[in-house]
Protein 1
Amino acid sequence: MNIAILGAKGMLGIDLSTVLQQHTLTLLDIGYGDITKSTELREILTLKQPHVVINCAAFTRVDDCESQKELAVRINGLAVADIAEICKDINAALIHISTDYVFDGTHENGYFEDDIPSPINTYGYSKLVGEKILQGEEIEGRKIDTQELKWYIVRLCWLYGKSGKNFVDTMIEVMKKNQEVKVVTDQWGKPTWTMDAARQIQLIAETLPESGIYHVSNEGIANRFQWVSKIKEVLALHTILIEGHSSDFPTPAKRPMYSPLVNTKLPPMRSWDKALEEYLS
Ligand SMILES: NC(=O)c1ccc[n+]([C@@H]2O[C@H](COP(=O)([O-])OP(=O)(O)OC[C@H]3O[C@@H](n4cnc5c(N)ncnc54)[C@H](OP(=O)(O)O)[C@@H]3O)[C@@H](O)[C@H]2O)c1
């Protein structure tokens, strides 16, 4: 199959390229395949004629999105309309990557695919713009007809992987440099390895199920303290971990406190701690 990956040099994009290597891949990133330059993107994709386009390109620096809302909405939201129009014209399916941050983090049972999003920061709002566009809704002055398009919104959460700045690698560095480290106990989610997420996205790309929203995460819920405790255990580090609270670490963007994604449509993935053990081995 011929597959194009947008944002192919990002943390997820690189692991997707590995997992999908038996296919013919077109790897695009900001230098060649900027998703906000629709004419150039159309030329490339029309030339390559992919069967499936996977959009991993995004403005992912959550705190920076607060001060750069227009850019965040353009990259994470409005560009999705242009990508979708191109996919319709070349008859390609579109797998668009989204996030648990479209939710406010107040549901005590986590979030099902059809729960109504209610973002609490600009990044989450900008990603929701992309989701609504694919669902054919009008937002930010843009509306497109997606009935003729096979589209997939794939929400991920708490990603880590070897090719990008991520919480796991940051905490390993912090633990190696400090005798005591404070970690919050009040943020809950599903830590997810990009390789496992990529294999689940591969399944969608190869089977093209019904258009709609899909949740992809390793199974099991953890708070950040439990996550770091597991890293410490696997690596046999001697750092003392101290329980903290989000208010100890003020950030420009608010985070959803409890945003595990519930997957009711795809085969279940392995547990987050097993995936983490393999990542760290
Ligand atoms: N990381 C997480 O915890 C997490 C959680 C849930 C969902 N997600 C979603 O998962 C997807 C992949 O995230 P990731 O963690 O792999 O992020 P990432 O490492 O930041 O990758 C995103 C890539 O997109 C590129 N990019 C930015 N603007 C672009 C543009 N205008 N045109 C083309 N490429 C552009 C970035 O380039 P530069 O680096 O040069 O900007 C980067 O290579 C995103 O949709 C993100 O919203 C991530």
Protein 2
Amino acid sequence: MDPSDPSPFLAGDRPLSGAELWQWRQAAQAAAIATDVNPYEVDWLLQALAGLDRLTLQLGSFRSQEAIALTVSLAELDDLWQRRLRDRQPIQYLAGRTPWREFSLRVSPAVLIPRPDTEEIIDLACALTTEADRIGHWVDLGTGSGAIALGLAQAFPQAQIHAIDCSPEALAIAQQNAVEHGLRDRIQFFHGSWFDPLDALRGQLRGMVSNPPYIPRNLLSTLQPEVVHHEPTLALDGGEDGLDAIRHLMETAPAYLQPGGLWLVELMVGQAIAVTQLLQHTGRYTAIHSHRDLSGNDRFVSARLKMA
Ligand SMILES: C[S@@+](CC[C@H](N)C(=O)[O-])C[C@H]1O[C@@H](n2cnc3c(N)ncnc32)[C@H](O)[C@@H]1O
């Protein structure tokens, strides 16, 4: 489809029919295949903007509907799809939402799109803790969309969660997500750098969970255009070797964690050995372990603050 062509699917002021949407979807999927984009993403957009569920879309049963409740005009829908194909904007930003664990999370270009891999950090936090650990104060450092904070709030119903980010725009999205999922009173949001806003909680945290920026700076330009051109650099850039934020978190966490408190971070494939060695060199941690993701790659490292 040429974006400069007027859409042949404009329905004017009358409601769009299922047959018209079906025709648009066929053309959009063909254009996706031609430009190496997953044609399933068309349905992602339609689920968000046309209120159609996945099965209805897959079966094509909407085709016989007299009217489709599209929240934008067909021309606007087509424009969004052209932005996906032409500018490689991530479909999650265009749809404004992404599924993550059992949440449907609001996302914008101010936040990293929460990844399926990161869902596992919540299961890991559960596996590494006892009932007693799950009471008290937990932090999500670099909360972005709020994904980890929401996951922790749900998994640890008796804990108080604190979510920090240095991006006010990201915090606004995270707070909206907490409100939408009924978890606003379980999570306190703080604007600032890493542990800085948590002075009042020194020595009191039961656990720290973080998915910090960890991409080595010289690799940023090699990432997919969807990532490097559209996701916030602040969420990706881990400095020269990718470990700037992780080093900072292991150096500063001992002042904030309780003795025995959990330190748990996500990292990039290939960083686990360096991170476990750095943790050992601090002399402050015990039970230092790396953990694999579902694909079998070491993607997480956990440790416990040594007892005094
Ligand atoms: C990789 S993203 C993770 C976002 C979210 N936790 C997730 O897993 O989808 C890293 C986040 O760290 C935040 N960040 C970067 N530097 C920071 C700093 N100095 N203090 C607090 N947050 C920071 C970024 O704004 C971004 O939201």
